From TrEMBL:
It comes from Virgisporangium aurantiacum. PROSITE patterns: OMPR_PHOB. The keyword DNA-binding applies. This is SARP family transcriptional regulator. Pfam families: BTAD, TPR_12. GO terms for biological process: phosphorelay signal transduction system; regulation of DNA-templated transcription. Residues 1-96 form the OmpR/PhoB-type domain. The keyword Thylakoid does not apply. Gene3D superfamilies: P-loop containing nucleotide triphosphate hydrolases (3.40.50.300), Tetratricopeptide repeat domain (1.25.40.10), Winged helix-like DNA-binding domain superfamily/Winged helix DNA-binding domain (1.10.10.10). Residues 1-96 bind DNA.
Length: 930
């Protein structure tokens, strides 16, 4: 295969990359998935959120952007900076020519084949395209997203191209010449009816009638076993034709009336239609005719949320391809979702028959007979049928024609049954990409205004959820406003936001609230109740167990309701057991909850949700640090089933998965009268912050909860939160601010007479004073803490403050006295099995040994600390101790090994976005450890 110079990227087989003809050794895992994600976007920008979902469908890291940036940097180092570019919106794209990517070249050749002026030219282009394939796309890559969402579509394209090539080759050759190849193909796609149709027809044309009938029985059995369905209409008609050929019977239908001339019913196209990359996907699904050669009926189902633009893209695409269907172009609004009743299949069939010129007296009464007549009328005509706003598969199925037809269906339902039983090819519309949404806004308000107010324009697009209907409504309003900022301000009032998306009483179809109401009214009782409950949740991304707590139902019951909401595009099933509700839809769910749910029921649901987050966070925190006392939870009993975690890995994974939602829930609870839950959930997150997230990220978080606790006079909450803020500034080495927070915390704990809290803060205040240099006061506070903990019979507290005392001695230069304290503390933690505290103590012990030059003892202590942190899954501290180990190894005379240790630390510090990663990176790159 000829490959251009510079970079060449192959995905139609195992992932293969060359640079100037030499193979590039790509790292395994996520770097490859990132590259694949950019390549299948065909040069379009891919948003950070989309990359994250593809890279981590189940467990997303906390510092997503930092991790993605690391992967991008590695790819740029291998492939060149110019190949992977960043857009103004922070998205990434591959800037390559089609000749550099086999998939892009394949698509270009297929497009050229469709435009070819002769069968010979088309066949040559198809052969060139198919030669690019080296095997299964992305073979050998372990990516659930690729396996589920990308590879099947690419394989379908390959099958379609092969089928078209076979059609062209067999048009002027012996039909039997393709039988062997078709048999191989049906073995690869045993339920692909279009392949069997060609095989059976080739056998029939070759005079091999018995083999043709046997092949039909094979596909019939395969479909029954796999899906419990019969072959489609085209195969059944071919089967009947073969059966009657031997006895002189005719399979032809009786004559039916025909229309006087061509039928042209498509609605007018949209002026200024913007973007929509899905048009390319639709074009690939379109059947290609060759002269008089008949094609089986193709059904394309376009589904998506209310207001996502299904009708607009369907009508636009229908106009683009209408020339290929010169005989009949039909349109029918099935009114599946709207103020009235849906059109019945019988009435719809009658309407279509009338449009085709069938007299009223010739239209039978029974639905089945009308359906059969419809198929007969269009059997010999190239027909394009656009069925808009379908309710479900049962409404559509009787309307599907036979012959050389293309049926385009739009629906808010996913029409899964139509896909399984009737072979419909689904195209799901998502929200517009940012660039297309901005273009749509500019098409109404003017590109100059968007350019003049880029921040406001971007905010408008976000507040509209990038939904075309919402954008159209807001763009019309913005065209009359003095500035885009004025419209943004109107949309910032969350409770009144949907009011902005009303276009007046003259046209309910351009009112977003009305559009959402039609989908809501179509739900069954359980799904509608679940939808209302979701409106009480402050997050867009909701886990199955949290939804179950809201609804007070089992996860199985809630899963069924959420699946129905996903089928109606009111939620999106993004990842395993997680569902996303877009802002505008969630706002409508909130309205329905406030209108339809009694206030007491709403309060009970919110309490269950907050209880679930609180007690599950405490359960995860207890797994991370089992010896920690959590008496702050005592007044709040669990009212819902709470998740339990067998390992620290599971607990950390839960925190990472729920992190953003936990922060949103805490902020919402603090501002909506649930301050007790807010500060307690925040306290249950402190170990996770210490384990994974740099403490400075928590300053604003804990400070906002503290202000809420102060307004609510939650003195115990203030005491705990002030201590947490002191720990944050202690970690930031702002000793004086840390000490000030600890003093305020101590006063609150004294106010509520909380002895354990007083002991905790005295120890922390002593640590701060030791850093400030007041070693006498530091020792005095820490010894008070030790005495309090002894009175409380808390051996863990004693051990922690022996560690604090040792640290204070170490800072004053008394390393030997510090080592004695650390050894005493280590002994206690080993006896009680407190791995977390042991890990912290061994770290300090290692530092003291290193300070007096006992490197062997220091390295031993550091390794024990690292092993303990690794055992409990505290990645951040494991990496920080690795840094000190690397420095000790270097001082012991092993610089090469030291760099290896520091490189291991750098990987984790970069992953969590720790600012110290820059310092360590410089050391790894050649500087001396300090």
């Amino acid at each position: 295969m000829d490959r251009p110079g510079k970079v060449w990227l192959g995905v139609l087989g195992p992932l293969e990359v060359t640079s100037d003809g030499r193979a590039v050794d790509l790292p395994a895992g996520q770097v490859r998935t990132l590259l694949a994600s950019l390549l299948v976007a065909f040069g379009r920008p891919v948003l950070m959120d989309d990359l994250a979902e593809r890279l981590w469908p189940d467990r997303m890291p906390v510092r997503v952007r930092a991790t993605v940036y690391t992967y991008v940097a590695r790819l740029r180092g291998l492939l060149g900076h110019d190949l992977i570019r960043t857009t103004a919106g922070g998205a990434y794209l591959i800037a390559a020519e089609p000749e550099q990517v086999d998939l892009w070249r394949f698509r270009d050749l297929l497009a050229a084949a469709r435009r070819a002026g002769s069968a010979e030219a088309e066949l040559a282009l198809l052969r060139d395209a198919l030669r690019l394939w080296r095997g299964q796309p992305f073979h050998g890559m372990e990516s659930a997203w690729l396996t589920r969402e990308v590879v099947p579509g690419l394989v379908d394209e390959w099958f379609a191209a092969v089928e078209r090539r076979i059609d062209l080759e067999s048009a002027h050759a012996d039909p039997g010449a393709v039988v062997a190849e078709l048999r191989d193909l049906v073995a690869s796609g045993p339920t692909r009816e279009s392949l069997w149709l060609r095989l059976i027809e080739a056998l029939r044309q070759s005079g091999r009638r018995v083999e043709a009938l046997d092949a039909y029985q094979q596909i019939r059995a395969a479909l029954a076993d796999e899906f419990g369905i019969d072959p489609g209409d085209a195969l059944q008609r071919l089967h009947r034709a073969i059966l009657v050929e031997g006895v002189g019977q005719s399979d032809a239908a009786p004559p039916v009336p025909a229309p006087a001339g061509p039928v042209r019913q498509l609605p007018h196209d949209i002026v200024g239609f913007c973007g929509r990359s899905e048009l390319e996907q639709l074009n690939r699904l379109r059947p290609e005719a060759d002269g008089d050669a008949a094609q089986p009926t193709t059904v394309v189902a376009i589904d998506g949320a209310p207001g996502v633009g299904k009708t607009t893209i369907a009508v636009h695409w229908a106009h683009r391809i209408a020339h290929a269907y010169p005989d009949v172009q039909l349109y029918l609004n099935l009114r599946g979702y709207g103020p009235g009743e849906p059109v019945s299949p019988s009435a719809a069939a009658e309407t279509l028959l009338r449009a085709l010129g069938v007299p009223t007296e010739a239209i039978p009464a029974a639905t089945d007979e009308r359906s059969a007549l419809l198929r007969s009328v269009v059997a010999s005509r190239r027909t394009l049928l656009l069925l808009d706003d379908a309710r479900d598969a049962e409404q559509v199925r009787p309307l599907l024609p036979g012959g050389d037809s293309l049926v385009v269906i739009t629906s808010r339902s996913q029409l899964r049954g139509l896909s399984i039983r009737d072979g419909a090819r689904r195209v799901t519309l998502d929200r517009l990409p940012v660039d297309e949404a901005l273009a749509m806004l500019a098409s109404t308000v003017g590109a100059d205004r968007v350019a003049a107010e880029p921040v406001a324009a971007g905010r408008l697009v976000d507040l509209c959820d990038r939904l075309p209907l919402a954008l159209a409504i807001v763009a019309e309003r913005a065209s009359r406003a003095d500035s885009l900022r004025e419209v943004v301000h109107a949309l910032l009032d969350e409770k009144a936001r949907l009011d902005v998306f009303g276009a007046g009483e003259d046209d309910p179809h351009t009112d977003l609230r009305a559009a959402l109401s039609w989908s809501y009214r179509a739900l069954d009782g359980d799904a509608a109740a679940m939808f209302r409950k979701l409106g009480l949740h402050p997050c867009n991304d909701i886990g199955l167990e949290a939804a179950a707590a809201l609804a007070d139902l089992s996860t199985r019951q809630v899963g069924r309701s959420l699946d129905r909401l996903a089928a109606a595009h009111l939620v999106e099933h993004r990842r395993a057991q997680r569902f996303e509700v877009h802002d505008l839809i969630r706002r409508y769910a909130t309205e329905r909850a406030e209108h339809d749910e009694p206030a007491a029921d709403r309060t009970a649901a919110v309490r269950r949700m907050l209880d679930w987050y609180l007690h599950t966070a405490v359960s995860a925190d207890n797994t991370l640090m089992p010896h920690r006392v959590r008496d702050f939870v005592a007044p709040y009993e669990a009212t819902v089933p709470v998740a339990r975690f067998a390992t620290t890995t599971e607990a950390l994974a839960w925190f990472e998965r729920e992190y953003q939602c936990l922060r949103t829930v805490v902020d919402w609870a603090a501002g909506n009268g649930w301050v007790g839950h807010a500060w307690r959930i925040a306290m249950a997150m402190t170990t996770f912050f210490d384990a994974v997230i740099p403490w400075q990220d928590g300053t604003e978080f804990y400070d906002s909860v503290l202000r809420a606790a102060e307004r609510a006079a939650e003195h115990a909450g203030q005491a705990y939160l002030l201590n947490s803020l002191g720990c944050i500034f202690l970690d930031r080495e702002d000793w004086h601010r840390a000490a000030a927070y600890f003093r305020r915390s101590l006063a609150r704990f004294q106010q509520v007479e909380h002895a354990r809290g007083m002991a905790m803060v005295l120890g922390n205040h002593g640590r701060a004073q030791g850093h400030i240099g007041d070693h006498e006061r530091a020792r005095r506070d820490i010894i008070r803490a030790i005495n309090l903990y002894r009175q409380l019979r808390s051996r863990r507290g004693v051990a922690q403050n022996l560690d604090n005392l040792g640290t204070t001695f170490a800072r004053s230069g008394a390393q030997r006295r510090a080592i004695v304290c650390f050894l005493q503390a280590s002994e206690i933690t080993r006896e009680i099995g407190d791995t977390h505290t042991l890990a912290m103590i061994q770290h300090q012990l290692g530092l003291s040994y290193a300070a007096i030059g006992e490197m062997a003892n220091a390295i031993h202590a550091f390794r024990e600390s690292i092993a303990a942190f690794h055992e409990i899954g505290i990645r951040r501290w494991e990496a920080l101790v690795l840094v000190d180990l690397g420095k000790a190894v270097h001082q012991a005379g092993h610089p090469g090994l030291a760099r290896q240790v520091l490189a291991a630390a750098l990987t984790t510090l970069t992953w969590i976005g720790d600012p110290r990663s820059h310092e360590i990176s410089a050391i790894v790159d050649g500087a001396q450890p300090t």
